[in-house]
């Protein structure tokens, strides 16, 4: 049994072709932070006849089961990434949509200190930093 099949069973989900194919695609490094529409197009590109409604339904099931994490960046559309065991934050280019993951112990420690100062026990948090790429490879939208 593959890791993907085990992940599905562990989450209490039946192993179906759409779930397996979507999970396989999401395991590819270039498919992190991917929208349902982009995932649907990639499925069509590889000859999989899985409808857009099914892609949305599977991603919602994966989100509920903790297999993926849903993010709502400034673009307004949800993107998904496989849930990981290590916490990380995100830098997002407002022009081209590029997403960079990063971890910083100083930021993590400071967030904990601020929460303690205000008598809050953190259970979860997300940090998104927005800006514009400064390299020539960025699309820079309508500039």
Automatic annotation (TrEMBL):
Keywords annotated in UniProt: Cytoplasm, DNA-binding, Iron, Metal-binding, Repressor, Transcription, Transcription regulation, Zinc
CDD domains linked to this entry: Fur_like
One of the GO BP terms on file: negative regulation of siderophore biosynthetic process
Cofactor remark: Binds 1 Mn(2+) or Fe(2+) ion per subunit. Binds 1 zinc ion per subunit.
Localization terms from the record: Cytoplasm
Residue numbers binding Zn(2+): 93, 96, 133
Family matches, as Pfam families: FUR
A GO cellular component entry from the record: cytosol
Record-listed Fe cation binding positions: 87, 89, 108, 125
Cofactor(s) listed in the protein's UniProt record: Mn(2+); Fe(2+); Zn(2+)
Domain of life (superkingdom): Bacteria
InterPro entries associated with the record: FUR, Fur_C, WH-like_DNA-bd_sf, WH_DNA-bd_sf
UniProt-recorded Gene Ontology molecular function terms: DNA-binding transcription factor activity; transcription cis-regulatory region binding; zinc ion binding
Binding partners and assembly: Homodimer.
UniProt record similarity statement: Belongs to the Fur family.
Protein's recorded name: Ferric uptake regulation protein
Species in which this protein is naturally found: Shewanella insulae
